Amino acid sequence: MTSNKLNLLSFSGNIRILHLTWFAFFISFMVWFAHAPLMVIIRDAMHLTEQEVKILLILNVALTIPARIVVGMLVDKYGPRQMFSSILILGGLISIGFAFTQTYQQLAIVRFLSGFVGAGFVVGIRMISEWFPARQTGIAQGIYGGWGNFGSAGAAIILPSVALYFGEENGWRYAIGAIGVIAIIYGCIYYFSVSNTPKGSTYFKPKKMGAMEVTSKSDLLLYIVMNAPMYLALGILTWKLSAIMQWIELPVAYAIYVMLLLIYLFQVWKIIQVNKSIFHTEVPEMQRYAFKQVAILDIAYSLTFGAELAVVSMLPLYYVDTFNVEPILAGVLAGIYPVINLFARPGGGWLSDKIGRKLTLGIVSAGAAVSFFILGNVTSEWALGLVVFSTILAGIFSKAGSGAVYAMVPLIQRRMTGQFAGMVGAFGNVGGLIFLTVLSFVSSDIFFMTISATAVFVLICVVIFLDEPKGQMVEVLDDGTVELIDVK
Fold it and tell me: What angle do CA 176, 177, 179 make, to 5 degrees?
């Protein structure tokens, strides 16, 4: 725990926990995205329309936004060991259920439920923060996120071959069922192979459940405001399914809008109830934290991971439509984009450890602004190699930005790291949904320009409002003992 270097070839101590946890994330992402590379086969076997396919793809991410918030609360209370094992086992069962579906309605319901598995990412953030000191948390979180994120690419590489091996129209069922079984087995292995903290360390838990604890009235207001975009994103998703895709009837859509509003109002009430003590009792100075840190990281991750989600979804068609590239070559070129995660996200975390969290996030935000601005000016006359290079450059900055964001998340308040990670992660999905919604109305160059403008806004927020973590976090044990945790 005291070494300044990470020996990734080791399989002991905190490195062992890192490897076991990023692989758990890898498996969960394979489960979550297992349908995507098999969708052509599923479409033909189940005789689905293009509209029905699009709805399945949207439903796959719908539940992830609220699930990350809920899972963030649960992991802070029950610990990452229990939560990651539970998510893998439950996700495996859902995956097996998907393999046995017989109707489109069943496909849609199970695909919607599978969005819960995407919340597994939040759990590992808390686990890694417990096992690595502040000086290593950036690179450790980057490896966890970057290598685990590759599970979506793993699904694309492995599962079609499995389906082809079994052949005929049920090959996809064997492939998706197999990854479900693997998830269940690994969930059991993970439970018996890890612990929530190193021996002798304390696992700090929030004093109250249902909402984050804030430490000032202004932070309470900011927290309430920052919850609104997540419900707005779910409203946009409902609108796309009703007004554009016409899968949900208008009265049902209105009912969902009302339900989202009521849930948001209930959440506001819960936030106030959890934090009502700040109206009459001032929080001691040493126990305070600034919620603006969380808010800025929310916005930053909506840019970095949101851009990643949106770009990886549109890139193959972009190459085909703009440059008349053959579909197979377009798929290969677009496949470079997710591979960048393997080194760019750890790189962003490593740089944060070396030169500072705020400076790194500022650099990658500026880089994203410039690189996406370049993509916004691409025309069909550009050389294809130059365009691919530009997308790689944009990908490096956005993915390094994700690493930089989560290099800071664990350094705000230890006992609520899961809740912070959940909210920030949910904003990543919000960003992806908003960018893709923008893309559905505008050309690709305006889409890229929108991401660039968002990056400029994030850069301004980082430079003016974000504080570099320094000193120590303060946690108070049940017996009143104060424990100090270094954040620099």
Answer: 65
The tokens describing 186, both together, are: 């690994």
State the total domains in the chain: 2
Tokens linked to 18: 């890192």
Q: For residue 251, what are the CA distances in angstroms to 43, 231, 254, 256, 354?
A: 29, 19, 5, 9, 54
372 neighbors 278 (Cβ within 8 angstroms): no
Lookup: tokens for 110:
């199970």
Q: Specify the length of the chain in residues.
A: 488
Domain assignment of residue 337, yes or no: yes
Q: Which domain holds residue 145?
A: 13-191
Is residue 92 classed as helix, strand or coil in its secondary structure?
A: helix
R_g over Cα of the chain: 22
Residues of the chain with pLDDT under 70: 1-4, 168, 476-482
Q: What is the mean pLDDT of the chain?
A: 90
Burial label for 65, CB within 10 Å (0-12, 13-18, 19+), is buried
Q: Is residue 211 assigned to a domain? A: no
Per-residue pLDDT of 6-34, as tens digits, reads: 788 888 899 999 999 999 999 999 999 88
Per DSSP, the three-state class of 292 is helix
Amino acid letter, 403: G
Residues 329 and 404 in one domain: yes
361 and 251: one domain? yes
Helix (H) or strand (E) holding 483: strand 482-486
Please identify, among 191, 209, 240, the residue that sits at the C-terminal boundary of a domain: 191
**Distance (Å, whole) CA 372 – CA 223:** 30
Which residues on adjacent β-strands are paired with residue 473? 485
Q: What are phi and psi of 476, to 5 degrees?
A: -115, 125
Rounded Cα distance between 371 and 451, Å, is 10
What tens digit of pLDDT does each residue of 268-318 get?
999 999 999 999 888 888 788 999 999 999 999 999 999 988 888 788 888
**Helix (H/G/I), strand (E/B), else coil: 311:** helix
Q: Residue 34 domain-assigned? A: yes
Same domain for 125 and 47: yes
Q: Are 151 and 221 found together in one domain?
A: no
- The kind and range of the H/E element at 408 are helix 384-408
